[in-house]
Amino acid sequence: MKKMKLSVLLAMFALVIGVLAACGGNAGGEETEGNTSGNSNSGGGEASETSIVVAGSSAMQPLVAAAAEQYKADNADADIQVQAGGSGAGLSQVQEGSIDIGNSDVFAEEKEGIDAGTLVDHQVAVVGMTAAINPKAGVDDLTKQQLIDIFTGKVTNWSEVGGEDQEITLVNRPDSSGTRDTFVKYALDGETPAEGITEDSSNTVKQIVADTDGAIGYLALSYFDDDTIVKAKIDGVEATNETIGSGDFPIWAYQHSYTNGEPEGLAKEFLDYMLSDEVQTTIVPEQGYVPMTDMKVERDAEGNITEK
Amino acid sequence: MAKASVSPSAEERLILTKKNRRWDEVRGRSLVTICAVIMIAATIAVTVFLAQKGLQSFTVNNINPIAYLTSANWNPTGGENASFGIFPFIFGSLAVTFLSALIAAPLGIGAAIFMSEIAPKFGKKVLQPVIELLVGIPSVVYGFIGLVVLVPLLRDHFPGIGFSLFAGVIVLTVMILPTVTTIATDAMRSLPNSLRQGSLALGATRWQTIRKVLIPAALPSLLTAIVLGMARAFGEALAVQMVIGNTRDIPGSIFDTAGTLTTIVTLNIGHTTYGSIENNTLWSMGLILLIISFVFIFIVRYLSGRRKI
User: Fold this and answer.
1) What integer best gives the mean pLDDT of chain B?
2) Chain A contacts of B42, Cβ < 8 Å?
3) Does A288 touch chain B (CB under 8 A)?
4) Mean pLDDT confidence for B240-248
5) Percent of chain B with pLDDT over 90
6) Are B283 and B54 in contact (CB under 8 A)?
7) What is the average pLDDT across B84-104?
8) Using the 8-state DSSP alphabet, how is residue B17 labeled?
9) Which residue from A76, A99, B180, B234 could staple onto A93, CB 3.0 to 4.6 Å apart?
């Protein structure tokens, strides 16, 4: 009799565990700390909310983390957790409500499976990027057409574009990466890059380009901080905050912080802080991004550029 | 335990301990049963969840499973022309797994024989700790060493650009060597001494004993060691990702770049949104990884079931 009871109890226990595991999984993978914010959200009076979770684009993580540190130094009771995980994960999680702010390198409209209607876009900075070339290739200026020819595999030797006699090695980012999306859209006019080495981290891309003769990849401007790689000019235009702000240099993207509905409480305060002069004139340029205040042009999700 | 303050009689003590023992028995039994049930539940939950998620690309997105497994064309972001063929990654995964096992097996079994038969003292004191130390190194460290040391070395001395199937194989070989060696050593050590004595008594030399008696006797366990090493190689993502190049073509030679199931999943999963086709196809790759590791486990069960000694 006792045995029976015990086994029934254990069976029920197993069932509960199973259901819990399935639920946790359905909510979507990596929500280790997402839970806390979810609770505070649903429980939430806006004034009492002192803890938010920000996740998404790994390219934006250093910028947002630096701003969060600064904000926490000024507001002792604010708790802002900044996690990476990728733009897709950021958008998915903010839509589900498991995080408060989702960072993305691309417009939510461009990501499949996201209902952009419910998300509110806050553009906190602009990131410029350009081709990174191994110094031994002997090239530092490419026309857009040459860039397309190189990345689609039509040109396979640097001598064909005025450099040394050296094979070209392409270094790509993964298929859905925001950096790759931006580069393909604005540098390659939507042409699909040919096969090459694919690496996920920009640091690894930089290291490979620096070490491999004839390599070319693409990186955000903040990575061009030494002369191990060449920062390519496109059509003779150097990538700087000024040329990007004026719209002369084409390869750039907004750094989006998305909220599910209009932000409230700490999320709103933090986003306002991100856009304040304090952050825009110090942390943003220090981290290698272009401040929103420098942008004389605007771009919408379809890529149409208008004067501000 | 026993609450009686004055020394109880023998009869009393027996009754008291008997009670305690029964309670202890139930408590201990429930504790370990709960542990076992949690583990089983976790495994089932993971399998069910992965199956449900992984089958979505076929049930919701209507991708043809045959084409998914056999097509060599992977272009998930092609919009209208998107195609989902993961054969190159299955090929890459199997290639690095088998090639690294091919190198690690003789090395590991050789080391095991050395440790158990040739120099047991030296083996136990020096070689075994050294090899076990390799397990503790995080895979990102293997990957980074591969990236900054191995890749430039291969680039200078072999055809290709350094990032290659070969680089992945070398890194994996080092990573699975401890697994193979440790299990093989245990297998050799657990052989009864009567085997060695019998063989020597018949006039066989040490080498003949090892080759004709000990290795055949330990063979099922040695194969288990290799298969477990292969299972580890198959599931490794991070270190391989850093050195293999992660391309979507089937490699033409061992010095070509390649991609594996694990590296493609880890590279892409964070950039995709839940529920999108690309995300679903990545989950399907996870399901395939799970199925293949089940196969590895079944092989191990089968092999250890055949063990005779």
Assistant:
1) 89
2) 17, 21
3) no
4) 91
5) 62
6) yes
7) 94
8) H
9) A99
pLDDT of residue A14: 55
Q: What is the pLDDT of residue A40?
A: 39
Q: Is B60 helix (H, G, I), strand (E, B) or coil?
A: coil
Beta strand A233-234 pairing with B74-75: unpaired
What pTM value is reported for the model? 0.80
In this structure, what DSSP letter does residue A120 have?
Answer: E
User: ∠ CA(A215), CA(A220), CA(A221), 5° rounding?
Assistant: 100
Residue A198, both tokens: 């694919």
Query: Of B83, B88, B81, B80, whose CA–CA distance to B64 is shortest?
Result: B83
Answer yes or no: are the C-beta atoms of A82 and A71 closer than 8 Å: no
- Written as six digits, the tokens of A178 are 């925001």
- The whole-number pLDDT of residue B14 equals 63
Residues of B with Cβ-Cβ distance to A169 under 8 angstroms:
161
What pLDDT does residue A64 have? 92
Sequence letter at residue B104? A
Closest CA to A137 of A204, A231, A205, A239: A231
| Residue A283 parent element (H or E) | helix A283-286
pLDDT of residue B9: 74
Considering only CA atoms, which of B80, B261, B67 is closest in space to residue B168?
Answer: B261
Considering only alpha carbons, which residue of chain B is nearest residue A171? B245
Q: Do A196 and B247 touch (CB under 8 A)?
A: yes
> Do residues A149 and A189 make contact, with C-beta atoms less than 8 angstroms apart?
no
Contact A22 B48 (CB under 8 A): yes
pLDDT tens-place string over residues B62-88: 899 999 999 988 888 777 778 899 999
Question: Considering only CB atoms, which chain A residues are within 8 Å of B151?
Answer: 211
Q: How far is CA A24 from the centre of its chain?
A: 26
Confidence band for B31, pLDDT divided at 50, 70 and 90: very high
For tokens 């999700």, what's the residue? Answer: A301
- CB count, 10 Å around CB of A53? 26
Q: Do A21 and B46 touch (CB under 8 A)?
A: yes
User: For chain B, how big is the Rg over CA atoms in Å?
Assistant: 26
User: Residue B297 is encoded by which pair of tokens?
Assistant: 């486990």
Residue in A closest to B37 by C-alpha: A14
Taking alpha carbons only, the member of A61, A80, A60, A59 closest to residue A70 is A80
Q: Which residues of chain A have pLDDT under 70?
A: 1-49
Contact A297, A306 (CB under 8 A): yes
E strand or H helix at B227, and its extent? helix B215-235
Q: What is the DSSP string of A164-230?
A: -S-B-EEEEPPTT-HHHHHHHHHTSTTPPPPP-EE-S-HHHHHHHHHHSTTEEEEEEGGG--STTSE
A21 vs B: CB within 8 A: yes
